[in-house]
Amino acid sequence: xxxxxxxxxxxxxxxxxxxxxKQDSQRFWIELLQKVYGVEDPASFVRFETRVKLSHTSFIxxxxxxxxxxxxxxxxxxxxxxxxxxxxxxxxxxxEQAKRYAAALPYSERPRWIITCNFRQFQVFxxxxxxxxxxxxxxxxxxxxxxRLQFMVDVKDxxxxxxxxxxxxxxxxxxxxxxxxxxxxLGAPQLxxxxxxxxxxxxxxxxxxxxxxEDAGIFGRRNIFHDYLDDYRPQxxxxxxxxxxxxxxxxxxARDPFLEAGLAAFPxxxxxxxxxxxxxxxxxxxxxxxxxxxxxNFDWSQxxxxxxxxxxESTLNPATRRAGGMHxxxxxxxxxxxxxxxxxxxxxxxHAAMQEKTIKARxxxxxxxxxxxxxxxxxxxxxxxxxxxxxxxxxxxxxxxDILRETVLDKAGSGxxxxxxxxxxxxxxxxxxxxxxxxxxxxVSVAKTAIWIAESQMMQETEGIVHREMNFLPLTTNANIHExxxxxxxxxxxxxxxxxxxxxxxxLSVIDVGTLGSTEVDQIPxxx
Length: 528
Known about the structure:
This protein folds into three domains: 2-152, tt1808, chain A (Alpha-Beta Complex); 159-303, no CATH class; 331-523, no CATH class. The chain is built from 19 helices and twelve strands. The protein has helices at 2-15, 21-36, 42-45, 94-104, 142-145, 159-186, 193-215, 224-230, 234-248, 261-264, 285-295, 309-314, 318-324, 331-354, 359-375, 387-407, 441-466, 491-494, 518-523; strands at residues 47-53, 57-64, 69-73, 84-85, 91-92, 113-117, 121-126, 135-138, 377-380, 434-438, 480-483, 501-503. The chain has a six-stranded mixed beta sheet with strand order 1-2-3-6-7-8, with helices on both faces. A four-stranded parallel beta sheet has the order 11-10-9-12, with helices on one face. Strands 4-5 form a two-stranded antiparallel sheet. Strand 9, helix 16 (387-407) and strand 10 (434-438) form a beta-alpha-beta unit.
């Protein structure tokens, strides 16, 4: 508690007399959560500029989903008790504005806590007691009053635990899909068991991508996947899926000009996920209901791409996993590898840059760090479903977003307001920096899909920083995940050796030296 009190006093002193709503809001809350409340990765804990649909589209300044907290931020000097004219002409106090946003959210996303803030005061409303007067906390008193905002970070189950639970549920759901679809493939006499399993695996990956893309807004309209399939009875369901997969791999200009409207509404995906022709078996009513009622009603947007490997594992029987040497590694254990390998040094460099007293010096050092992040190459020669690579990508992109909050300026250089050039993206870290080898073809597909999901989630976070929408589709980049036996491949052909290459992963799960002769050990291509 003494540490928090000292940190709160330093935070209050730094922000005394400061606070512009447009320029400083995100930095203010990131620093408060990180420095005072000890949130290690606040960028992944909060959401900025969340869209909410009223009679018009508005934006919620700050949301903390894990603790059901909403924050309406105003500039210093704004009286939190005086009504402000809204874009639709109504006059609302900041708290009334926040409550109107809350009422427009889905019930499960509505806040328990609403905070209004003007950089000088915090008003706290407990919606369990909506008619009570708010608590008032002065920034100047934060050292003594910090405990009263502790609810913002008191998560009964940690954020990672929640992601694991959601991802486990998703994995179980995919397992049910796999079980229901398997006899439909194996019942085809013209397919060998190996072919049937290959097609089944690829169909599962495609279905998961479509379900995630629908819920995450990648496909555009909500429920577009569900509504398209809902028009087809079981006897036509397989053809509907095949037609959709074909359309997702076609550029709009190459599509049939008379394509039905339901299919034409889907975007071009690219990335190779739908490039191969995969036969879809005739569906029965039970499988149709499983997809439309169970799978489509699950919120796939909340899955952790790092824990996406659990979905992969749920679709393979234990004997197959043992034969392939597959092993799921927790996020905590992944960080025991990647933090000392490269992430800790980058974080230290970021914090050192933030200590620079002039904006010019700070910006130059942060931009130089961003270039370093864009130069690193991460390589997992036994990547499985890509957990190490995906978590490394997420960690680097979160750090890059921290940099962007400080360096993406408007033309006048006066604030973090976005950028105007349509073709310009401030993102430098790419999934093309992540390389892997995996012997199982299904795992290769899952690894690529997981890192695409990670890319989508981080792009949404960047959108909140630069205040503009960015197009995720068509996919323009691809992780360098290669199918093959890491013990038989020359790693240098996949990734030339350099000081920027970081090798990680569960190497011992594939390199069991006790089972290899000395000649074979010498042939392991560790020179990469």
